[in-house]
């Protein structure tokens, strides 16, 4: 009996907490690999969660990617304030499954913490003719700088700046709801910053990202991500990243993304491909 | 002569294939479907605790008529909407974006209730989405 009351109380608390904002399903996008609202590897102009201009939402996510030679995971949280400002926190870890033992460092991993901030400058994802346009920063701090410094990275922290445009197209194409994002980023990061910042062959670069897809129905979306990469380290030249994703958004509290990612060569190891999984919760 | 007949045949084939494009109104199922969507919509919005207060002064039959006429007209049907324009109709109501969202969600659910296919729902939403700034006060 006591147990039942406990569960009932918990249910009430969870229901009370679970007051997500009122924007339509899917418009909060998902947390991308650096903790910002977006898709798998691309940052979008969306503000995390479902809040309108009188609502604030909190989103949390766990992401996992396995390419055999590497295992990546991210835990992150974001606050979307009034569909205007997003503040995000992410902890990334890349297990050097193959490189670690080869370097005589079994169990070695690269770690990074990211604090992000994004502001919606203009437009509305769904309702305006123009796309939603946002400006954001991601302050990145590498927490395992020994290996990157040996590899030639010059800094253990840096800031990415990006300008992003995202639009949802109601009923287009073919009656489905299409979506598209183009993002320009200024970055010094080597492999997102997991290999530090700057290096012997470069420093700050302008890179492009894009994401396209379709909602097949209210809860299922499919899409494609592309992220241009530039190289700062002669020892670890980078390849562009791409992925194909499927997202399931059963309600405003949960979303799940599965993707097949092709990350090319990472730190000398070629053909890094694998399954990407991400689980998001919103309140 | 044969050539003339051949060309005539081609022309006929061409004109036979140019079937007049069906309006969205027709694709939805005409007046009956729009009446049904509107009934389902009113069942929802007039009893949704988050927005029902917006309709306290509203006469259901009057609102029904206006919504039907508007959907019918905007989807290419034979009706003429004779109510106030969207700015006038909602002036002084101070409708928030979040309340507009809840209306849109109820509209989507009403179309689901009326078994309107997803792709047609989106085409209808695309017509009404640009009205957000006229309806809300923000």
List keywords for this structure.
heterodimer; A: 283 residues; Porin; 12-stranded antiparallel β-barrel; globular; B: mainly alpha; Globin-like
Quick recap of the structure?
Chain A has 283 residues and is mainly beta. Chain A has three helices and 14 strands.
Poorly predicted ranges of chain A = none
**Can you give the mean pLDDT of chain A?**
94
Largest sheet of chain B: none
Q: Given the C-alpha coordinates, what overall shape of chain A results? A: globular
Q: From the 3D coordinates, which CATH architecture of chain B would you assign? A: Orthogonal Bundle
CATH fourth-tier homologous superfamily of chain B:
Globins
- By DSSP, the count of extended strands of chain B is 0
Taking the sheet with the most strands of chain A, its summary is:
12 strands, antiparallel, barrel
Classify the secondary structure makeup of chain A into a structural class.
mainly beta
| Percentage of residues in helical conformation of chain B | 55-70%
Number of domains of chain A: 1
Report the portion of residues of chain B in β strands.
under 5%
